[in-house]
């Protein structure tokens, strides 16, 4: 009984010692084995690992790609138009030993504070460089600027054991106090452009109307000229026919001309005429002339 009473506590202590010496490294993690703050082993492969109980401790770090949102900052491009920039970065702990040596017990929080400072410094440097204007930042060329920020931040973050995978500019806006002035300037520019377009449209309309009026006048003049020519030719042909008819039968031609005169003289209300009885106007209406 006495041996049993001694053996059971010993087995429990041994079991606790064995269990405390075993730890599991997940495939999404990297682990450091520390002894009195000094790195004794690096565990980057997933599986079971061992450490000395009570003396050594295990610190684990996430091996996945992590995200970091930077604080909103103001930058001044080369055209002196200030912009409010909000960015985010994606990074991973590439060298866990260097990471531990750089941040110590501060861990990821301290590392992100330092990485945020690096990103802000690189954003100001790249966006404030010569030949980088606010229009460049707001255009499709911002992709090139983001790559430049990423590359420079990656070089600076290597001392922390961090690999910067990507940097994106989420927002690039004007400060609130500049928005109204910018909108007013944009509105004035658009109104000026609209006025210019209206003036050019009116000028083009005047040219079209003048051309149309000239075309109408020329067309009418040409038509009138052709009509005069046709009328002249018709009159000439008519006179020629009359002359030919007069030459063929002068008596019939005189009769025909008298009938035309009667038709024109006795139209509508103009049916009363005052003339002498022996007038030659009604010469062909006399019975004796008809008898002939």
From TrEMBL:
Q: Where in the cell is it found?
A: Membrane
Q: What keyword terms does UniProt attach to this protein?
A: Hydrolase, Membrane, Protease, Transmembrane, Transmembrane helix
Q: Name one GO biological process term.
A: proteolysis
Q: Which InterPro entries match?
A: Band_7, Band_7/SPFH_dom_sf, HflC
**Pfam families to which the protein is assigned, alphabetical:** Band_7 (PF01145)
**Any one GO CC term of the record:** membrane
Q: How does it sit in the membrane?
A: Single-pass membrane protein
**Molecular function via GO:** peptidase activity
Is Protease given among the entry's keywords?
Answer: yes
What positions does the domain Band occupy?
Answer: 20-186
Q: Family, per the entry? A: Belongs to the band 7/mec-2 family. HflC subfamily.
Per the entry, what this protein does is: HflC and HflK could regulate a protease.
- Which named protein is this? Protein HflC
Q: Which organism is it from?
A: Thalassovita mangrovi
Gene from which the chain derives: hflC
């Amino acid at each position: 009984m006495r041996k049993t009473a001694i053996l059971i506590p010993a087995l429990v202590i041994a079991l606790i010692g064995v269990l405390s010496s075993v730890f599991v490294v997940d495939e999404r993690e990297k682990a450091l084995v520390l002894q009195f703050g000094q790195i004794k082993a690096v565990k980057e492969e997933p599986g079971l690992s061992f450490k000395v109980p009570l003396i050594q401790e295990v610190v684990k770090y996430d091996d996945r790609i992590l995200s970091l949102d930077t604080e909103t900052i103001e930058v001044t491009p080369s055209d002196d138009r200030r912009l409010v920039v909000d960015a985010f970065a994606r990074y991973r702990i590439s060298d866990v030993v260097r990471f531990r040596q750089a941040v110590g017990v501060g861990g990821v929080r301290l590392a992100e504070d330092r990485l945020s400072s690096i990103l802000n410094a690189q954003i100001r440097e790249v966006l404030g460089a010569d030949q980088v204007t606010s229009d460049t930042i707001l255009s499709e060329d911002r992709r090139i600027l983001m790559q430049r920020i990423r590359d420079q931040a990656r070089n600076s973050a290597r001392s922390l054991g961090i690999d910067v995978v990507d940097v994106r500019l989420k927002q690039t806006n004007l400060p609130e106090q500049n928005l109204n002035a910018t909108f007013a300037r944009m509105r004035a520019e658009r109104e000026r452009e609209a006025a210019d377009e209206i003036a050019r449209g009116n000028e083009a309309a005047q040219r079209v109307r003048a051309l149309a009026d000239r075309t109408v006048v020329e067309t009418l003049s040409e038509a009138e000229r052709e009509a005069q020519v046709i009328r002249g030719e018709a009159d000439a042909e008519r006179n020629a026919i009359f002359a030919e008819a007069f030459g063929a039968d002068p008596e019939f031609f005189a009769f025909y001309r008298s009938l035309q005169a009667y038709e024109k003289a006795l139209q509508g209300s103009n049916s009363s005429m005052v003339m002498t009885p022996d007038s030659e106007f009604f010469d062909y209406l006399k019975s004796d002339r008809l008898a002939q």
